[in-house]
Amino acid sequence: xxxxxxxxxxxxxxxxxxxxxxxxxxxxxxxxxxxxxxxxxxxxxxxxxxxxxxxxxxxxxxxxxxxxxxxxxxxxxxxxxxxxxxxxxxxxxxxxxxxxxxxxxxxxxxxxxxxxxxxxxxxxxxxxxxxxxxxxxxxxxxxxxxxxxxxxxxxxxxxxxxxxxxxxxxxxxxxxxxxxxxxxxxxxxxxxxxxxxxxxxxxxxxxxxxxxxxxxxxxxxxxxxxxxxxxxxxxxxxxxxxxxxxxxxxxxxxxxxxxxxxxxxxxxxxxxxxxxxxxxxxxxxxxxxxxxxxxxxxxxxxxxxxxx
Length: 308
Description:
Helix content: 25-40%
CATH topology of the largest domain: Rossmann fold
Radius of gyration: 22 Å
Shape: elongated
Structural class: alpha/beta
Largest sheet: 7 strands, mixed
Number of strands: 15
CATH class of the largest domain: Alpha Beta
CATH architecture of the largest domain: 3-Layer(aba) Sandwich
Order of helices and strands: EHEEEHEHEHEHEEHHHEEEEEEH
């Protein structure tokens, strides 16, 4: 089985390595190197770095819809393209260039959470399970028929970073055990039911901003779903405050957003219950415990988080 792999971030690296165990990887396609960090040095995508370590050829097209990429794929005469977190919408001519087309490892139980941020959205919405769907790619946004779903439970205190690591490993297992079966026609491609579809668009600041009138449970899910990055945000005394780790409790005596001290730490009222801030970060400062934020008078009892 000859294959091309499309992927960019760290989450896709185990699947790339697993693909090398079941197929001849002809080439790897990743997004271009981009400036990152304070010095804006060009950063190499994790998939590119792993591919180079494996001695694989890497292609980083600046555009995918000019026809050149489709021609490039056809010239390599591959059976399949395996895609995971490439980060760009591939046009139909690229998807159809391999002999059996292109397959995607999507980090949700499709048709749930189609789109760019399925891991974060699953936690934010309080889901108890997620998984990896091996699907045939078409022109739609994660709308193709599904060959196989692998399930994974979400731990009650799990954040998106840890869940992404576990899904990354699961994607590698799916690649090892299901990809060749799909390519050989041994797995049925089952169409998705559009009536059951939900969406996971890119994370924006509107979603990141905590609404303290919501329940403590809902806010805790939001914080976990956006940790460790980009993180849920609020304001404290006019400064941005990133919430990195919190715990929901049943206390109800505080108004939404009102700060109090509980057991020497920082407690915040919500629409139902309260949030204990275990770790947070004020803009321009290092991350600190809620207790240290109170002791350092970054916030004081009676403050209202999120107030303009």
